[in-house]
Design brief:
The chain is built from five helices and no strands. It is mainly α.
Length: about 100
């Protein structure tokens, strides 16, 4: 009974809420660090449509903002963060002091 109240064991992967295929595609763009305009160009969508998808994704993932949603993708996929890769420059808008070397 105590285990049922405590929830799943810590080693269990986080569950992905029911996202539509398009929301998953938009979330992948967010995880890649793309802007709404860049995601729109990639998927053939308008910026307002991308922003609407991002808003729904944030709500479904129970995140506070798109940065947290992007981190959710990175943690879920266990992908390395590009700025931490030796020889790679910091993305535009990312202070160099935040880049792991």
């Amino acid at each position: 009974m105590a285990q049922a109240v405590a929830g799943p064991p810590p080693s269990a992967p986080p569950r992905l809420p029911a996202l539509t295929l398009r929301e998953r595609e938009v979330l992948a763009g967010v995880g890649d660090g793309l802007s709404s305009a860049q995601i729109g160009r990639r998927l053939g969508l308008g910026v307002p449509t991308v922003k609407a998808h991002v808003s729904r994704i944030i709500k479904k993932l129970q995140c506070e903002n798109r940065v947290q949603a992007g981190l959710f993708v990175l943690r879920r996929n266990r992908a390395p963060v590009a700025p931490g890769v030796p020889g790679r420059r910091a993305p535009r808008g990312c202070p160099a002091r935040l880049v792991r070397r």
